[in-house]
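Researcher: Sit down with what I've pasted below and flag anything odd:
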Amino acid sequence: MNWKRTRAAALILALATEPLAAQAAQSGAGEPLSAIDWLSDSVSVPSPVITPAPVAPPAAPVPSVTVLPLGAPVADDAGLFDAGDIGLTSDLWGGSSAKDLSRGFLSVPEISTPTLREFFASLALAKFDAPIDAAIDDSLYLTRLDSLLALARLDDAEALIEAAGPPTPQSFRRSFDIALLKGTENAACDVISTNPDISPTFPARIFCLARNGEWDVAALTLGTAEALGILTPTEDQLLLHFLDPELFENEPLLPRPPSISPLLFRLYEAIGERPATENLPIAFAVADLSETVGWRVRLRAAERLTAINALTPEELLKVMSNRRPSASGGIWSRIAAIQSLRATLSVGNGTQISRTLPASWDAAVAGGYHAALAPWIAEQLEDVTLSRQAHHTAFEIALFSNDIDMARRYAGSSEEDQTLLAILTGAPFEIRNAAPLAIAVRRSLSGLAPSESYRMLLSDNRRGEALLRAVAVLAEGVDADPNAVADALSLLMALNLDTLARRVAAELLLENSQI
């Protein structure tokens, strides 16, 4: 490939590409395009940015009359299941504006307790009545998508995009990155080439041209982008290496930026410099499930994704069953323990299962995916009689599975076991010499009314904002003020989410040994 000739042609082409230059200036400068900072800069129309607020202000004023085309689609009408499936009514968003609700979603930090994490994902996926101004503001819909991406729920986010109808530039930007991480980018590139409403940026355009075999056009487009001066040094270097790696053989790349997008990730991979995903956002771990990566990398990705319920236990076990560990320690010891449990479960011998269950459960806890694996294990234990040595492990498995009958069967006589069982069943309980968090849990589950700040939101028909604020508090776990935890749990109880409140309370206490 003659780069001098290509660049000369590009200079001529640049004279005819003023609209592209304007597009590039729009997408390459100013505000970031998303509430999360790792999305690829792949389309020219920026998405709105919402600054999180620790306490949501009153609902934003909405014009009394809004003129829209008849039948105009509203993205926030989309959902994958009814609100009633998670114990809520469809009018949860009430009188709140899209931006106020978006702030609520963005205020939720990383969630450690599995039941609360799953509920938060369900809030993003459920079908609610759209906010009062959703027809002119899709910020809540985009934040719902971003919340799912941050949880590595790529299939769910993709389904929600499809449920909202034809792609917009903002939703396609997310679709494009989902495709890059799942390895289905050819289909996304086909959308770019056939949909005139999707206006790709130069890096995305060049990548897709090359993926479709149009290398000469890709090179010409790269030359145009260079002539216009609109690529970052990293983009320029990567695209040059991507289009003609032999030309730069043995030459070092520029230092890798501190954060990369899925598009940059795929470009690095294409030139043989695939980044490790361990220190990248969890969604990047999906790319490590590919058959083209080593087994250890796939195992670690499967563990991380299962830990946040982005991968099913069956999918985790499928990756684990590929072969036998060839080493010991760390991940290899965990895999060996889980494989041993699976083998004994298949035999159904209660004595053998009792011997392997505690060590296998400890391995799952060390890997972080015990809560996700618990329902699968509980199902396998349904017709098994366990010996005394495995009873406490079986009790913990029952708690994380929300299997009350199993929990009753294996609960010990200790105050901790009896308290956790009482929390899940709604029975009265006392806690002696308890930690502040345990005292807060008891107060909230004993009928404590929510604080005035929550009651004001409820009376103003802003239940969704109140619920998101409570989720944000509970997400902090033991780091939160115990009084705030009690208040948040009380809010869940006031919204008739009793089962959720009790499960979250039990998991907070169990995971942090606060009884």
Remarks:
- Confidence is low (pLDDT under 50) at residues 1-33, 46-56, 62-70.
- Strands lie at 81-82, 126-127.
- The longest strand covers residues 81-82.
- The longest helix spans residues 330-347.
